[in-house]
Automatic annotation (TrEMBL):
Biased composition (Acidic residues): 227-238, 346-355
Protein name listed in UniProt: Uncharacterized protein
Compositional bias of kind Basic residues: 259-274
Basic and acidic residues bias locations: 203-226, 245-258, 288-300, 334-343
Positions of the UniProt region annotated as Disordered: 199-355
Amino acid sequence: MSGDYDRYISGAVIPVVATAAAERLRRRIIDVVGSVIETNSIRMAGNLLHCQLKNLPPELNNPECMAEIAHLLFDFIQGSFPTRKRPIPFILNVLHKPTDSDHTTTVLGYAPIYQLERHIEVDTRDGDRVTETHNQELRLQFGPVFREAAKASDARDSLVNNVLDTSIVQIPLTAFSGFLESVYLKLKSVEDDLITVDEQEEQRERERAEERRRVEEEEERAWRDDLPEDIETSDDEGPLGSPTAKERERARERVERPKVRKRRRLVKRGTKRRPPSEPEAEAEAEAEAEREREGEREEVQVDGAGDTPVEGEGEREREAPPASGPEGDEGEREGERVGERVAESVSDEESRDLI
């Protein structure tokens, strides 16, 4: 029996017996692990396992099958936590002790050691931020209940003291569910501690950001206080940075400037003429009528150049009103047409200006 103890303590892992019965047991254990996932209760899984193992047939009540059970459960416990906890493989074997009627099976294994890796950003003397990696070993310490159970299971064996000294625990199957729960709770407390540490680090980062923002606001306030008063405010309209009346007027001019430029271009090109005023239009119409009358007189003089005028006849012609006839009617009609053209040109200019 001591040889078996030596073999287990040395760390040799017993391979699982490849039999149909062992495979059936493996499926049952997987079902138990599945119930742990569904119920999230290590205590319930341990109790179910304890009930199943008590009803095992004799051919399955052997160290190989029990070792497989233990490995499956502890693999699940390790896999249910974040990857930043990197568990160091530990030895967990199950011994069959037919001499103990109350405890037919004893779990024997090394206490698991978990390597906790934390990445912390720290400030250097130069003001840079670097990441430091801190490794922390977590050794699970089991309570006095398990130690007393381990002593009571084989108090006559001299290896018990060595087991306790080397962090190897020997637990009866009746306390196996409590053992699993203690492992789970210990890991859970470590997880909560790490979460608390992360939250504290985030809180410190927020405080540093708030401090930087406050310093920047104080520097900006001091810079504004150093400015002259006539620069800080203009036209009594708001502090520095707000649009003043002059700035708004300049912005309005910039918006209206394209329209002014377009109008000037049109005036230069002659496509948009200024309409004449009423006095100018009347003077232009009278001048045009006068020019027409002068032209008519010249034509009359040219036609009557061969006749010798009688004395006093020219004066009578000038004093007499214009004779009614084809020539007089034609002159009046020509004057009316000139007046109509002038009026039409004025009305066209006014309409274009309105458009």
